[in-house]
UniProtKB/TrEMBL annotation:
Keywords: ATP-binding, Cell membrane, Membrane, Nucleotide-binding, Transport. It is a peripheral membrane protein. It comes from Desulforamulus reducens (strain ATCC BAA-1160 / DSM 100696 / MI-1) (Desulfotomaculum reducens). This is ABC transporter related protein. One of its GO terms (cellular component) is plasma membrane. GO terms for molecular function: ATP binding; ATP hydrolysis activity.
Amino acid sequence: MLTLNQIYKTYNKGSINESILFSGFNLTVSEGQFISIVGSNGSGKSSLLNIICGSIDIDGGKILLRNKDITGKREHKRSQFIGRVFQDPAKGTCPNMSILENMSLADNKGKSYGLSAGINKKRTDYYKSLLEQLKLGLEDKINVMVGALSGGQRQALALLTSTMTPIDLLILDEHTAALDPKTSENIMELTDRIVKSKGITTLMVTHNLRFAVNYGNRILMMHNGEIVIDATDTEKQKIGINKLLEVFNEISIECGN
Ligand SMILES: Nc1ncnc2c1ncn2[C@@H]1O[C@H](COP(=O)(O)OP(=O)(O)OP(=O)(O)O)[C@@H](O)[C@H]1O
């Protein structure tokens, strides 16, 4: 459903700081796959997500999503069918708007009319029913400004808003990394529930090897712009955290981390 074909990306081309990251990078993702992506610092994980979302340009190659060539599509166009949750809880939602307004905005994504158009009683009840599923009591705070919520509550809301309209792909960019261990665990469980219940094809970058092994049905380990481990669900259970950690340590030492 997602194909990255012969991707080339060099940062600061032609300058003294030129850095070649991807040289003919390929990746094929099947419908419904939930992929964990791990790797050393600077291995290209964020760049890969940015390339898929259109946040950075590529020098060569093609990106196909559901057999459509999206290579030339701008980021805001792709955001209509690619949901994204960032590491920073402040990024995925609007702090100066209420929970209700944030949900209405997400609900009307890509539509031309204003955000208040969709907020009637029936829609509000629907948003409340979605919030109830988070089990955080946010359904009783719909008029609270999102900036006043905790990081975990904001990430839960970001997960909800990014998946409330039909999307082709969900991108999770270290979305639990800024949270305390317990909240991060809760958000990971919530993520798993949402992804499984909707069957959304998902790419999750994480530094948490346990999450990478325990969640999702495929794991990729990246190093220097290449995939060094690509394991399916059963393979990754066999490999286990210890082996992954061993490989991870080897590549991290190699790049001086
Ligand atoms: N905007 C940029 N300009 C120049 N170089 C960049 C830029 N963004 C990333 N890079 C370089 O590309 C390489 C890959 O970076 P990237 O952020 O994609 O890695 P990462 O695997 O996400 O790392 P981390 O785990 O530290 O977040 C690094 O060498 C980085 O310095």
